[in-house]
Each structure stands twice: as C-alpha cells, then as structure tokens.
Amino acid sequence: MIDENAVRRIEDLHKLMEAGVITAEDFEKAKQDLLFRPKQRSFTPLSPSTTKPDPDNEAAWAILPLQRYADFEGRSCRQEFWAYFMMQFLIVMVSFALMGLSFIDSPFFSAIWMTLLVLAVAATIVPNIAVQVRRFHDQDKSGWFVLLNLIPYLGWIIVLIFMMLEGTKGDNRFGPDPLEDQA
C-alpha cells in the first residue's frame, strides 16, 4: 500500500534538493526516513516526559488532562488546568442550553441530553481529580489537598483559589517545572 502523504513529501523534498535548499545527502536521509519509519498512530497520548503543547494552542492544552487521564504524578501548570476547566465549562453550558431547548419540544430529547451529560461528567471525574492533584504538586503541596473539595459549600471555592496560585519556580519534590519545557 502506497502512503500518499510520504510520496508528496518526497516530491517536495526533491524540489528542495533541485532548488539547492537541501543537499542530496539530506534528501536521501529524509527519503529513507519517510519510507522506512514505522507507521505512526494518528493519536498518541502524551506521557509526562513528553514536551508540552505550544503555549498559544489552547485546544491542545485543554485536552492534555484527558491524554494524561489517570496520571497523578508530576506537575501541571495553570494554563493546562484553566484551558481544561474552560473547555468543560463551555461543554456543560452548551449541554444545558440544548437540554433546555429540547425540553420545549420533547422531554425525551431532554432526557437523552441529561444522560449524555451525566456520562460525560462520570467519564471526566478521574482526569479532573488528576489535574487538580498535579496543580497542587506544582505548588509543592500534597495531592491530598484535593480533598478540600469535600468541604460543604466552600470546598470547591477554596480549591479554585488554590488553582489560581502560581506554582513553585524550578524543580520541587514532585518533579521539574512544567513551564521550563517552553523556553
């Protein structure tokens, strides 16, 4: 099976070689790399050691906690937490709006939206807790601080305030500074 993308890339490399932008040796090396490298999956989850997304790519930051689904180790910067938080907030608000609009027409569709929303919330409980634990780690605090959420009425506000605080500069006992990768 011919990889059309690899063929196009090789053609582009050949044009660059003819234009004198790259050497024949660089062309051959890149061609061999394209032809014989193992097939890559379209979705590769980030491990904690993988570099962080581009600081301007909010969508990548928003899905990073989902890629690090049950990773309670290491640290997460504020950008990771807040991009993820805002994505969830928008999804919930849109879901409630659609649920309200569908209830006018049919309670059945409203029930479907509610079921989907409950399933989505259940599916994101683990990454929600994990990203909060990593934010506490970024501040050199124990991940057990996430239990502050259990304080009635005020717990979530206290945790939200902690999520706004800046992390410690440089390495701490939970790992390297998550912002140092972006230099």
Question: How many H/I helical runs?
Answer: 7
- Specify the biggest β-sheet: none
End-to-end separation in angstroms reads 40 Å
Radius of gyration: 23 Å
H-E string: HHHHHHH
> What sort of overall outline do the alpha carbons produce when their principal axes are compared?
flat
User: What is the share of helical residues?
Assistant: 55-70%
Strand content of the residues, in percent?
under 5%
> What is the mean predicted local confidence, pLDDT?
83
Low-pLDDT residue spans: 41-50
Q: What structural class should be given to the helix and strand makeup?
A: mainly alpha
Q: Tell me how many strands there are.
A: 0
In total, how many domains does the architecture comprise? 2
Short synopsis of the structure:
By secondary structure, this protein is an all-alpha fold. It has helices spanning 4-18, 24-36, 58-67, 78-105, 107-123, 125-138, 155-164. 58% of the residues lie in helices and 0% in strands.
Write structural notes for this entry.
The chain is an all-alpha fold. It has 2 domains: 4-36; 58-182, no CATH class. It is built from 7 helices and no strands. Mean pLDDT is 83; it is low at 41-50.
Task: Throw out a few tags for this protein.
single chain; 183 residues; 0% strand
Element layout with pairings:
Elements: H1 4-18, H2 24-36, H3 58-67, H4 78-105, H5 107-123, H6 125-138, H7 155-164
